[in-house]
Amino acid sequence: MNLTNLHPEWKVEKIEIATLTGERARSAGSNGRIGDHGKNCSVRIARITIDGETGFGHSGQLTEELAERVIGMRLIDLFDENGRLHEPYRIPLEYPILDWLGHRQNTPVYNLIASSERASDSPLVVPCYDTSLYFDDLHLQNESDAVALLKEESEQGLAKGHRNFKIKVGRGGRHMPLWEGTKRDIAIIHGVAEAAGPEGKIMIDANNAYNLNLTKEVLAAVADVNLHWVEEAFHEDDALYVDLKAWLQARGQQVLIADGEGLASPYLVNWARNGVVDVLQYDIIHPGFTHWLELGAKLDQWGLRSAPHCYGNAFGIYATGHIAAAIQNFEFVEYDDISIVGMDTSAYRVENGLFHIPNKAGFGLDYDEELFFSRVRANGWSR
Ligand SMILES: [Mg+2]
Q1: Which one of 14, 127, 248, 252 has the fewest CB atoms closer than 10 angstroms to its CB?
Q2: What is the DSSP string of 116-178?
Q3: Separation of CA 168 and ligand 1 centre (Å)
Q4: Residue 122 pLDDT
Q5: What is the DSSP string of 23-38?
Q6: Membrane spanning segments where (predicted)?
């Protein structure tokens, strides 16, 4: 980021924080690891005031002590010489500060961070996928009823403008008997792919509930599907990924290997550089946006693909759209249909499998300030 337009006298004046709540369009079931994800969602949002102007955005791990320390600091001192926020301010404050910078310069965040290859006046339109296809079928005894339900859910996604879908798999890892659950995964992948049509890209995510041989069983059974990636097939392990990659290559099956969310191995990026992992998926909230600006540039250099993980955080969906402007090999925004009361996202839209990022200042989101302040009093604080 270019810091030459940061006035040395701009100082942090106030920080307010609150939790806003809302819900998913549809309740989400289990995944390969854990139980129901449900309908309720919340986001922790901070409002920062600098030089009389405000910015809003997601805030993680912001303590009152840190806020007290930052109040009175010069904005320019929060950044290093490369125009990146210093580490301690990133997860707590990067989003409200970026939103502030966008408002101060009356430009979207994506213009502040865009790579030099991007034409600055072109609209930002980014591929996205519907990430809502969980194990919503566990109450159904019959495989064909389960397939019908997940097909119906993908049709809801199609009606909302989606073309690409990620399907949770690994039913046999915990929630169903091993082979019955695996067979159901395979039938559901076929059903959703049929609903999505030949152009729709399908991703599957086992949340580490498969092992190498189960992964091969499933991939062999869905070789007729436009399967784009297999995500977290099993806990990342270079010996197993070397084997899976060689097996896919020997078969001529074009499926990418994606991993990196959660407690990722510190060696994962090295394994990717060695060619056994294709898509990296660290989270857009933690380690976050500034981390992704640095990582995404390196992944581009190494010819690897970036797909920031973003499930369960409504703010992250919009942030992921913006960061696409900085990363050449950006894959998709992970889109979950969540409405947060008091956070107006209506300037964004999903159409034909693409996420349209508005040409509006900051992150292009509008907040109901009265509601925000009532939430600050109820569940937050102010410094
Ligand atoms: Mg995942």
Answers
A1: 252
A2: TTS-TTS-EEEEEEEEEE-BTTTT---HHHHHHHHHHHHHHHHHTT---EEEE--GGGTTS-H
A3: 8
A4: 85
A5: EEEEEE-B-SSSS--E
A6: none
- Please tell me the CATH code under which domain 124-367 is placed: 3.20.20.120
The C-alpha angle with vertex 25 and arms to 24 and 30, in degrees rounded to 5, equals: 60
Q: pLDDT over 90 for what percent of the chain?
A: 96
Predicted TM-score (pTM) of the model is 0.97
Tens-place pLDDT, residues 156-211: 999 999 999 999 999 999 999 999 999 999 999 999 999 999 999 999 999 999 99
Q: At what angle do helices 87-104 and 289-301 cross, to 10 degrees?
A: 90
Q: Which residues pair with 20 in a beta bridge?
A: 43
Q: Which CATH class is domain 11-106+369-382?
A: alpha beta
Specify the length of the chain in residues. Answer: 383
Ligand 1 center from residue 208 Cα (angstroms): 9
List pLDDT tens digits, range 272-291: 999 999 999 999 999 999 99
Distance of CA 82 from the midpoint of ligand 1 (Å): 32
- Alpha carbon of 243 to ligand 1 centroid (Å): 21
Distance 167 CA to ligand 1 centre (A): 10
pLDDT digits (tens, 9 = 90+) for 97-148: 999 999 999 999 999 999 888 887 789 999 999 999 999 999 999 999 999 9
**Which position has the token pair 């074009």?**
254
Q: How far away, in angstroms, is 271 Cα from ligand 1 center?
A: 19
In contact, 372 and 18? CB cutoff 8 Å: yes
Question: Residues 6 or more apart from 302 whose CB is under 8 A from it?
Answer: 272, 273
